[in-house]
Amino acid sequence: MHQTFDAALEINLLHANQAGADSNRSHFDEWGITCLNLMSSPGAGKTVLLEKTLAALNQDLKMAVIEGDMTTELDAERLRQYDVPVIAINTGRSCHLDSKMVSGGIHMLAHQYNPAEFDLVFVENVGNLVCPAEFEVGEHAKVALLSITEGEDKPLKYPIMFQEADCLLITKMDLAPYLEIDLQKLEANVRQMNPHVTLIPLSAKMGEGLEAWFEWVRTQVQKLRIKPLTMTA
């Protein structure tokens, strides 16, 4: 059975993207930078989560952000107020960041700063529940956000995003009393797609659950710091 032209093209695109992602990750590893890829539908709260995270962790970690949006630098400008380097990437009509775009962001960061001084780079991907999950960018872990306003069925309707996530943040928990949503069913649907994902309910607005998120981030950074010691043991 022969592949269709579209299927073969998709395989080639993903293969080329993976090669670029592996190259990006090798740069991050060389510099000792942990990279986290934040993905969600539009409006789930990625940017406000980053605002809270940058404000809370900037005393402990040297951070930067690669900010992806189809147009404008509105989110990038919000994050620049926290005195961290923010590289804005406009994707035009593309609904996701790919490894080549992030490679350009890496080179811009390396041109303006000493990358070895950084501990952590966040990639804020374009708001979309489909494409970002399929295109790796060189991240060490994928973080998905799901707002409770989106309903319990999203993990079943958009399985790849939730299957690929290393950490899933259930956001806007402060709205739970005002919504008809079954949180147990939501979690069960998530676990059906990904039994091992770290699941953290939170409200960035009210601060609930943020400490658990911050601790998860710190753990990811620490993993990369001890990796060279493990390899030489």
UniProtKB/TrEMBL annotation:
Keyword Cell wall biogenesis/degradation: no
Family matches, as SUPFAM superfamilies: P-loop containing nucleoside triphosphate hydrolases
The keyword Nucleotide-binding belongs to this UniProt entry's keyword annotation: yes
GO biological process, one term: protein maturation
Single GO MF annotation: nickel cation binding
Keywords annotated in UniProt: GTP-binding, Hydrolase, Metal-binding, Nickel, Nucleotide-binding, Zinc
Domain CobW/HypB/UreG nucleotide-binding: 38-199
Pfam families: cobW
NCBIfam families: hypB (TIGR00073)
Family classification: Belongs to the SIMIBI class G3E GTPase family. HypB/HupM subfamily.
Protein name: Hydrogenase nickel incorporation protein HypB
